Amino acid sequence: VVETGTRTGWTALPNIDRFPTGERCHDFIVVALGRHGQFSREAMLKAFGAEYALYWTYEKEHERYRNTGYYSVHGELLATAINMTATVVTLFDRCRSSGLPRFVRDIADVDAKLCALAPVRMAHGVKSLILLPQAHGSVLEIGTRADWEEPPEYEGVEEFTRSDRVTPRHVFEPTDVNMMKVTRNSAADYAIFWEYDEEADLLKLAKHYAIEGDCMARSSEVTFKPGVACIGTAWVDPTYCLVRDSTKLDIRTFLRADMINEYGVKSVAFTTFPNGVVETGTRTGWTALPNIDRFPTGERCHDFIVVALGRHGQFSREAMLKAFGAEYALYWTYEKEHERYRNTGYYSVHGELLATAINMTATVVTLF
């Protein structure tokens, strides 16, 4: 076993075979400009192998993004972006409105319409980058000239949206049965199928279904051009599939923002098909993309049989609901004095799955 250590701290496993810049951390040439410069520096160091970071502040009044933070390990990589502005309807906009981190493996594959600064990045040899949503609509960009086959591990990020992994689908048939199935499978409150009209070059409401009442039924009043607003964006970019907090959407991004508030919809999801887009929404909120094909328990969230025991029971329940498709959660407290783990929290959607583990103990030298 080779053991290595650092006085500065690592947030990800260091690569003992090579370091992308060929320099040690404390030898980096530090260039941190703008009011978010220091933040950009600290954020970049969390993404192992990254070579630059740009902080883009969303200026809602002007509907644009302005670079207010820059950091580079070389002192010149993408320095031309300092204080530059970028228009909306871009990759930044999709990251901001969805609230989801995005991974771009090869910037050369990105349409220039989605990223006007793509030529600038390619001129500097930038290959891969990640976009991270920040407070107040801002976006943090971190990139490298290396080829990231997989997104780097980043603190607090479990999964990235990525365009190089899109599951192809067959044509969607908007029958009553299919609309009902989509709604119940994803534990949604409503579902809408937006069909693409090739002649008119518009996405129009073809079918609506709601669990209760007319939730979002007035959506028939609007249509969407490809690439415009959430539905149009999902049509041209299947990776745009979830808006975690739809209450923060403005009318430019989501034309039915007034309906969102009227019906109390917390999250909206999109699934792109060859003939249109299926939109689903929930009043309870989603932290991950719902699966419209199946729901493991066959029950809606509020119909779950709740079993939450022990002092960490409620925590276990909330944690389990964040992992879509999970059916149980167990919280194991480490008892140092006895060198063992004791179950102090249990939650199950069925009320019996692994209930025998309640208050059970487990010895150390285990997976725990």
Description:
This protein is an alpha+beta fold and 368 residues long. It has three domains: 25-157, Beta-Lactamase (2-Layer Sandwich), CATH 3.30.450; 176-282, GAF domain (Beta-Lactamase); 304-363, no CATH class. Helix content is 16%, strand content 26%. The protein is built from seven helices and 17 strands. It has helices at residues 37-46, 91-98, 118-123, 176-185, 229-236, 257-263, 313-322, and strands at residues 31-33, 52-59, 64-72, 85-87, 102-104, 128-133, 139-144, 161-162, 190-197, 202-210, 242-243, 267-273, 276-282, 307-309, 328-335, 340-348, 361-363. Strands 1, 2, 3, 4, 5, 6, 7 and 8 form an eight-stranded mixed beta sheet that branches. The chain has a five-stranded antiparallel beta sheet with strand order 10-9-13-12-11. Strands 14, 15, 16 and 17 form a four-stranded antiparallel beta sheet that branches. Strand 15 (328-335) and strand 16 (340-348) form a beta hairpin. It is flat. The two termini are 22 Å apart.
